Amino acid sequence: SPSPVSKFDFREPLEVVDVYESQQIGSSRRGSTFCLISPHSIALVPQRNLFLVSEPHQDRVGVYHAETFKFHTWMDYPRHFSKTRQNYKYPTSILALSNEFLALIEKDRLHIFDSYGKSVQSFGGEFNGLSEGSNGEIFTLSKNNVGQPSIKKLVKTATNYKSAGQVVLSAIQEFDNWEVLSKARFLVYSKEKIYITDEGLHKLFIVDLVTGEQMVSGYLGSKSGQFKQPTGLMVDDLGNVLVGDSDNNRLLVYSSEGKFMKIVAQREDWRYSSPHDLVRQGNYVLAVFRGEGMWDKG
Known about the structure:
The protein has a 4-stranded antiparallel sheet with strand order 1-28-27-26, with no helix packed on it. Strands 4-5-6-7 form a 4-stranded antiparallel sheet, with no helix packed on it. It has a 4-stranded antiparallel sheet with strand order 8-9-10-11, with no helix packed on it. The chain has one helix at 178-181; strands spanning 18-21, 23-28, 31-35, 41-45, 50-55, 60-65, 71-74, 94-96, 102-106, 109-113, 119-124, 128-132, 138-143, 149-156, 161-168, 184-190, 193-198, 203-208, 214-217, 219-220, 226-227, 230-235, 241-245, 250-254, 260-263, 275-281, 284-289, 294-297. It is 1% helix and 49% strand. A hairpin with a 2-residue loop joins strand 16 and strand 17. It is globular and about 50 Å long. The protein has 298 residues and is mostly beta strands. The two termini are 32 Å apart.
């Protein structure tokens, strides 16, 4: 029987609908204050009708109205850590979960918030990237107790989240000098596979959670199928993967097997400037761009 036609397919053209630039949110004798200066990650919180955008270099997480993208406020730091810290320290990835919980990574912690934004748990350590599995589990990148890069899985219990195993990323360790060069910062789960970008090795890694197989795609460069510091990832309904190619200022589409498919066409009047994080809103792609301190709906 013919497969159902997907409305969300990266093989179809992606067109820019709206662009939201850095906003002035205040001024004083010391000068003006702007948000969206160097955004890293974006999350849609549908039950609150808000977006969250992290800015690690400014040590802050901004809260924005979903319809207008107007700045609302800065996200509060969890009170029970107030003795040691009052603000987020280098916040990066944010994930809004289907159970309305929220996960957020800063320099040395992974925080879990409930649907009201109240901090309920945190894991100490260094983490990068967040994605939700098919059963509500959280996947993130970390290191195991002997320093090997790993995918870590957190599962929901009746009261909180607990660690539920990890997969060592042997494919990363096959590269010379990976300890110095590797910068795996983003991942996304889709159909029993995890896709990981490595900004330092300029690679797309694919981990099959069923068979354990690990594949590698891409080379350093600016031609078709090549990367310069790949960043955020997103999947469509068919399993195709949209990848931010930050130093080439473009978006690329790969198949679920890691085969290069196309470069996303760009408008002449607006260029993708260092794409970073990607998130889905209905049949829209929301992309954060670091180059010009702006983010875009396409």
